Amino acid sequence: IANLWDGDPPTVALHDEALRRGNESHVVATSWGMSPRIVTKLTSLVRRVQPAVVHTHAVKAEYAGWVAARLNRRPLIGSYYGRVAFRSLWLKSIDLTRFVIFRMFDRVLANSEAQRAELLRFRFPAVASSCFPASSMPRF
Description:
Elements: E1 2-6, H1 13-20, E2 26-30, H2 36-49, E3 54-57, H3 59-71, E4 76-80, H4 89-102, E5 107-110, H5 113-121, E6 131-133
Helix pairs in contact: 2-3, 3-4
């Protein structure tokens, strides 16, 4: 597990719980916004750890994770937690940007049936699973 954390990391609950359960976990200190250093740090971590898959959650992790996974030849899975239904144009634009980068992922997971339904509204094929092949992502 790699937790991207803005600023000086305080206690990260997911990190602490992963270690408590005997899992490998890392905290990658980042800065607000997208910095090339985040990509460099994550790429180095993936190279060192050699995970079976890179799974991202949230926009910053998706962009940095895409570079890290591709440079290290690792499968890449993204999580869609959906906000397109929100009224905020800013949040909608962020999710539409995610659809573009998700086209370059190996798989996209819907975190709930509501998000799965939202992805289907955006022309994802109807499948029994909540995991969508990236090749099915709509083109913009």
